[in-house]
Amino acid sequence: MPDVRLASPRGKWILLTTVLGSSMAMLDSTVVNVALPRIGSDLDASLAALQWTVNAYLVTLAGLILLGGSLGDRYGRRRIFVLGVVWFAAASLLCGLAPGPGVLIVARALQGVGGALLTPGSLSLIQASFHPDDRSRAVGLWSGFGGVGAAVGPFLGGWLVAGPGWRWVFLLNLPLALLCVPVALRHVPESADPGARGRFDVLGAALGALALALLTYALIEAPGGSPAVVVTAVAGLAAAVAFGYVEKHRPDPMLPPDIFASRQFTAVNLVTLCVYAAFGGFFFLTALQLQVVAGYSPPAAGAALLPTTALMLLFSARSGALADRTGPRLPLTVGPLLCAVAMLLMLRVGPDADYLTDVLPALLVMGTGMVTLVAPLTATVLASVDTARAGLASGINNAAARAAGLVAVAALPLLTGMGPEAYRSPTAFDAAFSRAMPICAGALLLGSALAFGLVRRLPPGCRRPECRTHGNVTAPPLEADRRASPRPRGGRSRSSPRP
């Protein structure tokens, strides 16, 4: 049985390692948006290239995150976590040295692979290392410190962009990795799941990522009207159908179709797709709107987004407790409505927008809406399936949110008529932004309607989330499988403190 205590020196080292690793991936999911205008200017990139700078990372992360967790269970959670950190750092170095948009996009896709290995691994290490009495508190600290990283990320990214340059947004990951890896190898016990058997669903993961990539390409390149867009769209749909076929007929699929037999689970994932599509589009476009149209500097644009994450960090745990009393239907209905109001309030943000009167009210309403809905959404996901599949259900929900965000980033410029140089023209971008916010609000209204019509009260005694403090705006929190005694690798236990 894992017996590392949180208060022990080794426990603190383990917590530091997991926070550093997950913070690398979380920082990059929030920092890059602020850097996009400077990246575009420096590399002479089109709007499509900027979309791919965001989406290349999300394609591989969303497509492979379930596989990443399985690899850790089979081959050792510490081993896969360290591999993910090293991979992520190497890809970050390539991002920082990229001579042009093409190399940057490829490097971002490689970053997503590293993120898919280290993100689930960081949480699994906590579950496998700490004494059961300390596990919930360790998860809470891990989630809270990660949320602080997400909050600081946009401001830090803006400061780096305005100072040493946008390349340091990626190069910042190198010292974090240099600290994280030796600490992990020295202090974190290795563990694996002795019950993990069968083949890895590599084909399913590859088909899922391929479908996302092809459909994203078709959406981004659609304004050009090339015949290749139609071919790519058809190929993407074919890959999606093949993915469904493979998952249905494999004995050990990455995404078991029968998990969607739960109507509640299916409903809450539909709500997730709607709300996180809106969130993905909102944060992508708002970071550009504040700089291109409102004239904010990168640090000011990054700092402007802090209230949303700060509200989530301060009140997400209380929101979860409130939802325990009221049931999930009410917060999952009201939360998206509040976020939709925030989207419409953002229509006031134009040239020379005043932060206190134009920007801050929208972000406060946005943060309140996200506080209201994220914790109940996670609780409903976990309660909708058997306890043994809660970790899988959380991974699916997390991947669905990221996939929704990348589709929104790909589709919104198409739906709003943004040209390839729109982000260089304040007038053109402001007009497109004014068309995009009502679309995002519409997606949130649909999510609210789905929640009201389909989500039901949770059964008594169901599993509750351990990640009660949450600050990530790009995806719901991950939850790991809870095993009372994860078996260490090798003969004797390696979870005991070293002499």
UniProtKB/TrEMBL annotation:
Entry's localization field: Cell membrane
One GO process term, biological-process aspect: response to antibiotic
Region feature (Disordered): 463-499
Domain spans labelled Major facilitator superfamily (MFS) profile: 14-459
Keyword Iron listed: no
Residues annotated as transmembrane: 12-36, 48-68, 80-99, 105-126, 138-162, 168-188, 200-220, 226-246, 267-288, 300-317, 329-347, 359-383, 395-416, 436-455
Domain of life of the source: Bacteria
Coiled coil: none
An example Gene Ontology molecular-function term: transmembrane transporter activity
Keyword annotations: Antibiotic resistance, Cell membrane, Membrane, Transmembrane, Transmembrane helix, Transport
Membrane topology: Multi-pass membrane protein
Pfam families to which the protein is assigned, alphabetical: MFS_1
Chief place where the protein resides: membrane
InterPro entries: EmrB-like (IPR004638), MFS (IPR011701), MFS_dom (IPR020846), MFS_trans_sf (IPR036259)
A GO cellular component annotation in the UniProt record: plasma membrane
Biased composition annotated in UniProt, kind: Basic residues: 485-499
NCBIfam families: efflux_EmrB
Protein name, as recorded: MFS transporter
Species: Streptomyces lucensis JCM 4490
